[in-house]
Design brief:
It is a single chain. By secondary structure, the protein is of the alpha/beta class. It has a single domain, classed as Rossmann fold (3-Layer(aba) Sandwich). Helix content is 31%, strand content 23%. The protein has helices at 16-22, 43-50, 58-68, 70-76, 98-104, 131-136, 162-173, and strands at 28-32, 35-42, 83-87, 111-113, 118-120, 141-143, 151-158, 178-186. Helix 3 (58-68) runs parallel beside helix 5 (98-104). The protein is globular and about 50 Å long. The mean pLDDT is 86.
Length: 189
């Protein structure tokens, strides 16, 4: 088997060197509207890994990246009350939900992942689209269950911030308190 990052021989998803390099010390912060968004990687650094979500091996890549970033974050996170991790539109289209994998890795005594709650009514894909296109074609997020505790929004990439801003707005309209959002990568140029 080979490392899915550098192609060196490895019995694991990532070799020792890549695992060490991809281990995160502290996330970067970006503010979208009034939402703090923390990202663990720059998009250019992990672009080839993130695009694996369109293939079966992406399951292993996302799980490994989630363990190196989201899981480590959850070990340090202390809030003092129950919090839900809401994956953004965790609808399964290709065998697994990449955002659900990320949310699951946050699970600890305080953070509980909750699936199928935050769904887009429009199935428009934003990948490779302009800000103008994203603003014209809203995702139309809906909260499908009553939520009585604060939440963390979870997504894989923040590009323009439109998706997270829409999800945050839907949560606010439903009376849900959003603490912040976590993403694997920030595609800011």
């Amino acid at each position: 088997m080979r490392c899915l990052n550098c192609a060196n021989l490895s019995f694991f998803t990532f070799c020792k060197e890549c695992k060490k390099r991809l281990s995160i010390k502290s996330p970067s912060k970006r503010v979208v509207d009034d939402l703090n968004v923390y990202s663990f990687y720059s998009y250019d650094e992990v672009k080839h890994l993130i695009h694996s979500k369109h293939h079966l091996h992406g399951l292993f890549v996302y799980r490994a990246l989630a363990n190196l970033s989201f899981k480590e974050f959850a070990k340090e996170f202390k809030f003092g009350e129950q919090i839900l991790a809401l994956p953004i539109d965790d609808d399964i289209t290709t065998g697994y939900s990449h955002t659900a994998i990320l949310a699951r890795s946050l699970k600890n005594k305080e953070i509980k992942p909750k699936y199928g709650i935050l769904r887009a009514s429009s199935k428009v894909k934003y990948s490779g689209k302009s800000l103008e296109f994203r603003q014209k074609h809203k995702r139309g997020f809906k909260i499908l269950e009553q939520i009585d505790c604060p939440v963390i929004l979870v997504d894989d990439i923040i590009t323009t911030g439109t998706t997270l801003a829409e999800a945050n707005k839907a949560c606010k309209e439903a009376g849900v308190r959003v603490l912040f959002a976590l993403t694997l990568a920030d595609a800011r140029e």
